[in-house]
Amino acid sequence: MNRREFIRRAIPVTALPFVLNGFPLRAYGRSPLLDAITKAAVTTDRVLVLVQLGGGNDGINTVIARDQYHAYMNARQNIALPELSILPLTSETGLHPAMTGMRSLYEDGKLAIVQGVTYPNPDLSHFRATDIWLTAADYNETLSDGWLGRYLQQEFPGYPVGYPNEVTPDPLAIQIGADVSLALKSSSGPMAISLYDPDSFYQLIQNGNNGGVAQSPKTPAGHELSFIQEIATQSQDYAAQVKTAADKISSATRSAMYPGPGKNYLADQLKIVATLIAGGLKTRLYIVNLYGFDTHSSQVDGGDSKNGEHAALLEKLSTAISAFQDDLNTLGIGDRVLGMTFSEFGRRVYSNSSLGTDHGTAAPMFLFGNGVKPGIIGANPDLTDLVDGNLKMQFDFRSVYTSVLQQWFATGTAELNATLLQTFPAIPVVRKSYYIDENGNRLYSSTCRLYNNYPNPFNPSTTIAYDLPDDGTVLLEVFDITGRKIATLVNGFQPAGSYKVTFTASNRLASGVYICQLRWGETLAIRNKMLLLK
User: Fold this and answer.
1) CB distance 210 to 231 below 8 Å
2) Are 274 and 336 in contact (CB under 8 A)?
3) pTM, two decimal places
4) From the DSSP assignment, how many helices (H) and strands (E) are in the chain?
5) Cβ-count burial of 16 within 10 angstroms (0-12 exposed, 13-18 middle, 19+ buried)?
6) 206 CB-contact burial (10 Å; exposed 0-12 / middle 13-18 / buried 19+)
7) Do residues 381 and 66 make contact, with C-beta atoms less than 8 angstroms apart?
8) What is the 3-state composition of the chain as percent helix, strand, coil, each rounded to the nearest 5?
9) Largest Cα–Cα separation, the chain
10) I need a surface site. Which of 273, 285, 395, 425 has the fewest CB within 10 A?
């Protein structure tokens, strides 16, 4: 069994859950290239937090079409919300009355709603639909790797060997929960280690405990045992980093922002996320969850549709996200964090006789944070123009993924294609994509485009093409995989237009992956990978 196969098979079995404030965490490695190329300080790293609403949230009773209230009442009279109880966002659209916190975020310009999100030929099975959302697969395609797993694999091929290290001491992504999400698995297996109780693991690190084996025997089995010890040491090292970050931030000064330990499961998770970000952990992806949205019955109380199981879930969601956003801003890190909710499907337009709703299709997604472009994207779903009793699609969920990767992380074209496997149109979800460089300059994104180089692989020359939407200063550079600059191809003012530049590798360059990076005006760097094969 080689190392890749070992990782694929053994890690899910031998993984030890790491618990912080009662929640197990799954940790994932970080790309050395990211630090080396951007040289951005820890406090300027951007973070994405995904909130999974397990079970299939009823979007029709979450974001209500006020301009279709008659059709809404006719379709689900036994669970419809009283018209005067709906929290207005616009004259056409409102929120469930339990979502006062998120209504405040909307009014503060920190909430966006994407209407009618699903995919062509949606599946109504929990398991299959969840797999599709986590892998970004087509309805008739089964994938074993997740969309974020592919993204991470592009950032650091070869993980976990050699991680953590001096350049990359922290995990790239953390999932709070007992299981490794399919979204964070790659073709070579889970991009994951797991850590248990931080205190006991930290004690192991201090004592240098190696499991009682001083040196592995020089045998094939001993070789694999050494690798197992390497993975265990890696787990302990990540535990130390997470514990160090957590210990830097006091919970006492922030207790009033959250409902209190054990009162809101999602809020407890998000408080951990805020703690780790503020504590200096360089982690950029977090996944948290809130389950219970499979409301086939008792979605509302019989005598009061404003209350019930669904209202309680939405109140937890709204309260947790609102408290999290307040906490981030109090800690001074609000500009760095973007949040996004998702659920495997919505519910049918017509309610059932059990005061509930059955599996449906399209539903709204929420994006939140200081950097979000606020407002409602798309129209209210038409409650009378249906397909088999279900809402029609307005946006493919992979367009939302594309938008977040492009506009928040400035992901290049080649990396986007490798992550989502197809091209999907982006929608505006971020005000202006920016980060702070090593000199304190704020760099903004734009519509400039860097194309895949051709040929790729190449030897010794390849052509790099790019478009500029307006006049500006252009810096086009090539780096090796460690972040060392190899060449400056363009450095100066260029008018709007299309350009092609040839890069020729010198004899001293070895075969391997090289990075082409484009900066235009105040634009965040856009990067593509190039493969030199000699």
Assistant:
1) no
2) no
3) 0.76
4) 12, 25
5) middle
6) exposed
7) no
8) 30, 25, 40
9) 79
10) 425
